[in-house]
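Chapter summary example.
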Amino acid sequence: MSPIFMERSHFYTKPNMKRLIILTLILSIFCASLNAQDVIRQQSCEDGLINHQVDSLKNMYSKDGFVLLKEASITMESEYEMPVVVPLTEGSWYQFVFIGDYTSKLYEVRMFDWNEKQVVFQQKRWGDVDGNVISYSYIPKFSEFHMMKPVQVNKKKKKNLCGYVMLFKKAGENKGNAAR
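The structure predicted for these 180 residues follows.
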């Protein structure tokens, strides 16, 4: 073999190997993404009845000295929790509100501290007074992130259920008495 032929052969082999490696990586990533689990992403929604309840509750809590810190409308699936992570400050008095689709039959909220210890559990049914609204007070013992997990069960509508979460904090107070 002549030296020129070897150089050309060597020259053409490296780019082909690089192309083969890149093509293999791209195919691997594509196949992995096809097999990945579906991720529930937070999406907003609109519901006139829920919006009316939100306005009423904002009014009521502001009159009681609470300030709205966070709020979000969320599209939910029946029987699937929608985790909401919030940072809480030790000794502050918080009020959490979850409003579910009025056609759902069951509403639940569980809240966990940073160590995954359940600190709150509430459940309501459709027939209860204000059955689609779960509201509770909480004063954390430590400044840390907490996770609120609302869920609603609807036998007729499995997807595109509207929900709404709000977090209020008592204005000007670090300590307070709240139900745990």
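To summarize the output: Residues 3-35 form the longest helix (33 residues).
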